[in-house]
Amino acid sequence: MRFEVWAPNARQVELVLRNERIEMARDERGRWSVDATQARPGDYYGFCIDEDDPLPDPRSPWQPLGVHGLSRVLDHSAFAWTDAEWRGVAPPGDLVYEMHVGTFTEQGTFDAAAAKLDHLVDLGVGAVEIMPVAEFPGDRGWGYDGVDLYSPHHSYGGPDGFKRFVDACHGRGLGVILDVVYNHLGPDGNYLGRYGPYFSDKYSTLWGDAANLDGPGSDDVRSFFIDNAVGWLEHYHCDGLRLDAVHAIFDQSAVHFLEELSARVDELKNRLGRTLFLVAESDLNDPRVVTPREAGGYGINAAWSDDFHHALHALLTGDLSGYYADFGAVSQVAQALGSVYVYDGSYSGHRGRRHGRPVGDLPGTRFFGYLQTHDQVGNRALGERSSHLMSQELLKVGAALVLTAPFVPLLFQGEEWGASTPFCYFTDHSDPQLAHAVSEGRRRELASFGWDPAAVPDPQDPETFNMSKLNWSELDEPLHAELLAWHRDLIALRRAQPALHDGRRDLVEVRFDEESRWLVMERGPITVACNFSAGVASIPLDAGRSARVLLTSVEPPEVRAASVELGPESVTIFSAEA
Amino acid sequence: MRFEVWAPNARQVELVLRNERIEMARDERGRWSVDATQARPGDYYGFCIDEDDPLPDPRSPWQPLGVHGLSRVLDHSAFAWTDAEWRGVAPPGDLVYEMHVGTFTEQGTFDAAAAKLDHLVDLGVGAVEIMPVAEFPGDRGWGYDGVDLYSPHHSYGGPDGFKRFVDACHGRGLGVILDVVYNHLGPDGNYLGRYGPYFSDKYSTLWGDAANLDGPGSDDVRSFFIDNAVGWLEHYHCDGLRLDAVHAIFDQSAVHFLEELSARVDELKNRLGRTLFLVAESDLNDPRVVTPREAGGYGINAAWSDDFHHALHALLTGDLSGYYADFGAVSQVAQALGSVYVYDGSYSGHRGRRHGRPVGDLPGTRFFGYLQTHDQVGNRALGERSSHLMSQELLKVGAALVLTAPFVPLLFQGEEWGASTPFCYFTDHSDPQLAHAVSEGRRRELASFGWDPAAVPDPQDPETFNMSKLNWSELDEPLHAELLAWHRDLIALRRAQPALHDGRRDLVEVRFDEESRWLVMERGPITVACNFSAGVASIPLDAGRSARVLLTSVEPPEVRAASVELGPESVTIFSAEA
């Protein structure tokens, strides 16, 4: 078995295996390697730099003892996959379901999540998007401070657990998108800096040192991340990756990291003969991210569309705090539906500058649309979901817009039934100083927004994690069951109507009335009429377009020659085809 | 007269004029303004923030007392321009001449430089490129630490002096390109931070805080720079701008600063009805900079091509120190001539990473080619020119390649006659600490490259500036006169032969022999045959291509049926047309 590690500045690197130190040989670029025939899968190992204590492998495939423990040898070829026929999912029109493994079930494991797939299949999900699983500090966490990027978290079930999960998903016709973080690494258990110039002081991110993607040594740092992406797709059979916060991926190279990554994934797609895709979280409102490489873009397949979320959330909740200050108007929901970005070059008060540029004619399938995500729920002081912040009626209107919009719809776990459980921010740092800093930092930040610090759940408290777990028993309760049925009906309608999942933005027409608070979106023969107000709305609509009611959140509305009367906080979907 | 200044965080701003403090009014974006009818051109003024001492205007048009003094009112409409017929110069094929006003003549003024224009016209120059003139600290300097970006330096002759110079150039058919620095400001006399968030801590540059082009308040910072560019083109009638070190212009916005700038300059071009252009210094080897905006680029008209310089310099001098370590082969000169970038994705040892990407089919006129610039000369310990580092024969070969390459050729002042004067790094900081830091920093840096610190001229010593002035009397000396004639002949040939100035890279063919050290470049009917070696080279060349000798640096070479015999260190230019 061959062991390799990049440590360009080390004078000496030794492999530690079965309590033995084995000298490694350096090549001209600082990559150290050795063949150790005695190594067996399951063996613990590490690397010693310049005779120091052993460290985990930066590319460790398995960290059963956590981020500070030794790495463990893994043989990827040993897993018995049953998905040989799987060819992937095509993202256009598909429904994506964001899942946090630790809170999706009581047990918080891959295996327990796999046991719940019936629910997702019944709902009509196309792919699950898994919040980061790469080994992060402790037993509980969102995963964005992972440090062993190649190693599925020990508390979720480790490498084999994740493979079983993906295999089970494929068996049920579900794709798997994995959330990966390439903009920074967590502070705890991060030994990469000991190995080489993984980080840059040229740029600063909110969360720590930026990755070194364009300085000396950056070829190997880029490979570290790109090989990681390839590994999840190849060894774990993932169908796609969600790239966290690409606006914090700083790279001045002539070939941007994201462009190199998308090209590598396209090569892999051809080699593996199945659909693969990349979706980016980006707050740049820059269409370059999802523009094809041939047209000067980075070739990422899709991006999360926060402007649509913010516009919809602010309108439905009236919450204008923080970044929602830039939103709140019906016109902005209309703008998002028609033009994707609400800020496409206009002045954003929250940002204190002009923001974004027009998306042009990129199809709607290049954007994910949602009313809730882990971030939008979990970054609130109390982890409140939309269901805690608006009426059941408006929840239905919101769901209808998400599921009829020209985007790829995304639901956050439990959203489909308006789960009563919150999704809080939780951590499990063992370093007492860091643990204290995280708890205090959270309190202070939220206190500065006017929250009572005593009311803010402590991220380090195991109870904060436990109360964030879904309560599946509430699915039997009438209001939850009703909301779930509403989601199922919408998803089934979306599937049945090509006009709803073709992503054609050129066929989208949106009208609205800011004062009366209604909005009508036409997509080909389909008309989605929303009344956000507490009163009845009379919405101008040609009888030809309201020939048939496909779905309504209230009693079927009164249809007149040139208008419909829509009940308070309601939505009705019409077809022009009788 | 209206006074305006942006100071978003100030509680109060007053205009100080004629020893009077006049309160200014704030608009919602933090721009303060007042009408002061008593103001007259020539009046000194400044702004007081929150009752502090008066500061110069960030947009001061005139700083006769230097960077720390008050600003002075200027009426741009008062100048009597005589260039109404001027329509600009078209950069393709033109010869650009880089000039430092302070050392071009003994007097070091715009007026003295204007008196030397005959020399440039006789040489065949198309446009002069003026090193930065924006007010910088003291009386002597290169200009890259300017702080009053709207104000031509007092020691060169101030605003009117610069206008007279541009007007004189236009009168002689010469265009004027001005070097501007938008990536940072100098440390001394930089009061911008007192006015607003002009700088960013998100990025770091080698020379100081990066400009805030994408953070809160950045709209006004972008306007500050873009209005500056427009001002030089509109009020000073400049024909173009050279953008210093755009690789240090950090901007994550969806519309990059350079793209916004080029769009504004294109609008201005249409409004003014004359040719304007932008040339960037960029070490990114990224064709996006000079790709049209419609194709996803930034729309800058041309870029300095350092790879061509480095390849040619290292080959002709054998100097492989510093960044020249990446160069030195004949093949690299061939690559630069054929493909522009030597590093177009390959590994650069000096940078410790892969670098660049292919330029594709961009025309050669999008790149400036040169053997010398202020940087390549002045950043050497002793400010040595190429003429100090290679034989007269190789100087001729280098000049021939620069002047027949498919790029826009650029000469550095005095290069045309192999000036014996150096061009050193010089400064005139009044702050003793800064002055000491500059002197010591320069010594230490060069000592680390093995130079004797005692031999390195002190940048603060006026003698370092004085010895960098051109010595025009040496033009009468035979060797200098011979080199000048050689440049004139090459320039005349370039002008006369469309194949040499059409910038068509698709018609360029380059062959070479690394061992025998010769290189042949064909451009349509023209063949440029170079022998870099100290011996005679037998170069395969079809008799059809060597029908006529257009120019040779030696005795006309022996032409055979399928080869030519080229003397040591020589170049001959053939035409296929007899």
State the secondary-structure class of chain A.
alpha/beta
Can you name the CATH architecture of the largest domain in chain A?
A: Alpha-Beta Barrel
Beta strand count of chain A: 29
At the first level of CATH, the class of the largest domain in chain A is Alpha Beta
**Largest chain-chain contact?**
A-B, 34 and 34 residues
User: What's the helix count of chain A?
Assistant: 15
Low-pLDDT regions of chain A: none
What is the strand and helix layout of this fold?
Two copies of one chain form a homodimer.
Chain A: E1 2-6, E2 13-17, E3 20-23, E4 25-26, E5 31-35, E6 44-49, E7 71-72, E8 96-99, H1 101-104, H2 110-114, H3 117-123, E9 127-130, E10 134-135, E11 148-152, H4 158-171, E12 175-180, H5 192-195, E13 199-205, E14 208-211, H6 218-234, E15 240-243, H7 257-272, E16 277-280, E17 302-304, H8 306-317, H9 330-339, E18 346-348, E19 353-355, E20 367-370, H10 374-378, H11 392-404, E21 408-412, H12 432-447, H13 462-466, H14 478-496, H15 498-501, E22 508-513, E23 518-523, E24 526-531, E25 537-540, E26 548-552, E27 558-559, E28 563-566, E29 570-575
Parallel strand pairs in A: 8-9, 8-21, 9-12, 12-15, 15-16, 16-17, 17-20, 20-21
Antiparallel strand pairs in A: 1-5, 2-3, 2-6, 4-5, 6-7, 10-11, 13-14, 18-19, 22-23, 23-24, 24-29, 25-28, 26-29, 27-28
